[in-house]
Amino acid sequence: MIPTHWFLILSAVLFTIGVMGVLTRKNGITIFMSIELMINAVNLTFLAYARQFGDLHGLMFVFFIMAVAAAEAAVGLAIFISLFHHRDTIDVDEANLMHW
Amino acid sequence: MSEFVIFFLFAAIAVIFAMVVVLHRNPVVGALSLVASFFALAVMYVLLEAPFVAALQVIVYAGAIMVLFLFVIMLLNLQHVAEPPTRPIQQFLGYTSCAFFGIGLVYYIVKYAVFTTQPAGPFQADARAIGIRMFEAYVFPFEMVSILLLAAIVGALLLSGRAVGHRAKIGQEVGR
Amino acid sequence: MAFDTTDVLLSILKIAIVLGLWLNVTPIMVWIERRGSALIQDRPGPNRVGPLGLLQSFADALKFIMKEDIIPAQAHKWLYTLAPTFGLFPALTTIAVVPWGRAFMIPEMHIAGRTLFEGGRWFNPIVADVSAGILVIFALASLGVYGITIAGWSSANKYSMFGAIRASAQMISYELSLTLAAVSVLLVAGSLRLTDVVAQQTNYYYVLFDVVKIPAWNVLSPAMWISFIVFVVSAFAETNRLPFDFAEAEAELVAGYHTEYSSMKFALFFMAEYMAMATMAAVVTTLYLGGWDVPYYNEPATFLGFLVSFLAFLTKVGLLMFVFVWVRWTIPRLKYDILMRIGWKFFLPLAILNIVIVAAFIAAGWI
Lengths: 100, 176, 367
Known about the structure:
Largest sheet of chain B: none
Structural class of chain C: mainly alpha
Number of strands of chain C: 6
Order of helices and strands of chain B: HHHHHHH
Largest interface: A-B, 72 and 86 residues
Helix content of chain B: over 70%
Number of strands of chain B: 0
Helix content of chain C: 55-70%
Largest sheet of chain C: 2 strands, antiparallel
Number of helices of chain C: 12
Radius of gyration of chain B: 21 Å
Oligomer: heterotrimer
Shape of chain C: globular
Order of helices and strands of chain C: HHHEEEEHHHHEEHHHHH
């Protein structure tokens, strides 16, 4: 049986990679994919703890996170399509109309 | 023993492909690497005795969400749009802060979250147990999520309509 | 979860049997498709190579190997090369969770004075009997879209691209009705495990004042008819066969997503298509046609029972494959917007309606 903290460490590494993508990239879709990666790292943590404590609540959270991630992907990608039609780019630095 | 080999193999796959997502300049390659990473995570879920969630992970993420990503990348023809390089200072700050963040996180886990006890079991994560829990204790969040998904569909339709200035036209399209 | 050497060897044997069968599907199906289309169109078909043209497939394979392997200059070389394997992967892995025969007891065996294993041992003719069986099928089948999408994108050809975009939209849409149609079957079986689904179908319904007994195959139960039709039609769309082959659509898109492919890479797409077809036929057989069950025959748990049930399974899959060919050469291609419209506005509500019907049947105690 693999110890729970190994899964937690893997999850931490994946989350960090996701953060790195959000901080260093400019392509909107790549940033979005990094966010999905972070969400998945969190899912892994939930499942690891669900197994550790032997109850299903963590697993339920994973379902709802998946559903929310699907909704988020639909709306987020629609926003990027809209942005691309207005600006001809999905570089997030170009979307600065509300910038002071 | 074989469990540990599988864990390390797929953990390595997940991490390496996640790095490709973050570092590669071509979004299509990035999206496919993310699929590979998610697939490796599904193997992790199987190791965590939740095959149901593993199958859902592949269906929802690899089969639906990432296809949507690829679809949008192809639709916008983004592979030809060169991404401008990030400013060196931003690059440097991003990488160093991430390194500190990651090291801190792992340190915290190693220090405070090491479980010496074996995981509690048996862990009932089959479809029946999940279904009963979902529709008894979690029926209200379940309905809320369905409303959220409906709102997301409507929002996505409204946002991605080509002529944003002509709401009436989009309305006709939706109504047809 | 204790494994010994015999278990590992048995698993390898099972994988070898399934893989051997599935790799041979393509040459056999190519022959059936060509002779079948000739039969339907009233012409002789290939009849020069071997008796009845049986060796035509091998001549084709030889030709594929001899052809020049072309990679377009603008193509993304890595993905262009990998795409055919992405297409092949789901077609080959999905079959692992489908049971293909009656489980039987292997008696104690002695070879050259040595006991091979002590006591009887069950041989369960399924590669991986996982608890989330049907979900694994849908999960792996949903990866099938990547082969086509990547092939179309990496070719750097607009017709390939059109084929790829059409295919991804089509496959996402039809996956929904496919899954929802299968939910009806799972409601009746009460389990996601495919061996349970088949075991439930080996029972009998008693109709006409409990005098006549009919096999409890899902296709024979009135509650399942809508779901059966939805599932089969969605299976056609999911495997990109006519009348839904918009990913290729040779009249509109040259050859669709594999326009630029040649030689063995093209052959791999060809194989993937037929294997996906065979897998879909096996899934339809398992979910609706009773799997390996032979009606009115109680298969004994011996090697004979296994052999009979295995042959029954193969016969059902073969018949369904012939239906695939038959439909292809009978029904013309639809229009793309009609395909999407019937998928979302017709099949999806019908599949959900059928779930309600089945639930009502179960509540009334008729199933």
